[in-house]
From TrEMBL:
Annotated ranges, domain Orn/DAP/Arg decarboxylase 2 N-terminal: 38-281
Name of encoding gene: g13155
Protein name: G13155 protein
Entire protein: shown range: 79 to 495 of 495
Source organism of the structure: Coccomyxa viridis
UniProtKB keywords: Decarboxylase, Lyase, Pyridoxal phosphate
Cofactor(s) listed: pyridoxal 5'-phosphate
Amino acid sequence: GLGFYTGTDGYLYVDNLRIDDIRAQVPDSPFYLYSKNRITANYKAYAAALEGLEHFVGYAVKANNNLPIMRHLQSLGSGAVLVSGNELRAAEAAGFDTTRTIFNGNGKLPEELRLAIEKGALINVDSEFDLENIAEAAKAVDKAARVLIRINPDVDPQVHAYVSTGLANSKFGIRNSHLQWFLDRVRQEPLLELAGVHSHLGSTITKVDIFRDAARIMIRFVEKIREEGFDIKYLNIGGGLGIDYHRRGDKIPSPADLVNTVRDLVADLGLTMILEPGRSMIGNASALVNTVTGVKTNGNKNFIVIDGSMSALLRPSLYDAYQHIELTAPCNGKQDTFDIVGPVCESADFLGKERELATPKAGDGLVVHDAGAYCMAMASTYNLKMRPAEYWVSDGELKQIRKGETLQDHLRYFEGL
Ligand code: LLP
């Protein structure tokens, strides 16, 4: 098996290992558990989809910044997409060739821009002030900055408002009507090299048509920019592909479906295509493994209380996101409808609502699936529930890939003050 599935014996597995056997070996709970082979397969799906096109895949590190995971993606051939100086430093620590990285963001700091230019990263221009900051930083380090202009395609990705980024009123990208100003400013600055255009529509996208709509719009910009005499190379259509969070076999487009909707549009333009996947690279390669603390009923609601919480995994609380939940072992408790909640002191602390499950017992295992992207990366220590340890199964063997955070880590911030 590859990734997470229910075996013929009714137990939940990751690759070849029973999750309950893993739980018996691991001292921590909750913990994040990954399938390294699933990550490899996800990367290879992108690489295969892009065959025949000049391309570069930039893994969006924001989705998961675990160092062994980053190192693994790097070893497979991935580049990296970054949103902070620290992400750039972490990518370098993981072995990424920093000239194959892209530095994105609407609020890049002067110090971060200097670092990115020194390291040879591609840099997205997001606004007028951002362009001025990039030009200043290039002068400060006396090195040319290779930039992409982030177009705002104003295409609705039809996703939750919090993860929608390419609409006219969003905080990202340039005012398209002001393009000429950007071209003129780049022309005046000898240390700015216009290398391409970028857009990112949003995240959890399950309709690839909108990538074609956006690519069409971007290609009009490419033509206009070329007419102005710039020799641009990169068409970066961002990340955003969704995954099958509901795990009921919905038809979710694959990387090949995504690439094929735009292939003919980019093939003839002599452009290098860049994709920036985060979620679809890592999301389905992990689950948060929790232990049931108890079961209770209030009013007409049943609750399964687990040791994991919104501190370990925030997406349901923040976006009302659905992540599938299962028990790790066959269970003959009564089938019922439950909210799955953590121990944190607020009602937003839930991992799932109205789920049909067999009534578990204290000590049983319960997983929240598809927890590879934006879960550990967004974890906090709220209520001093410390950030979980991480493990992966690598070629059939369990290995720890991140230590659990401890209270000592927290107390250290106050030492000597
Ligand atoms: N490129 C840019 C410029 C981005 O802003 C993002 C994600 C990506 C690439 C990667 O997108 P992906 O392939 O992962 O969809 N915390 C939210 C997701 C925020 C996404 C932010 N930008 C969540 O938990 O769903």
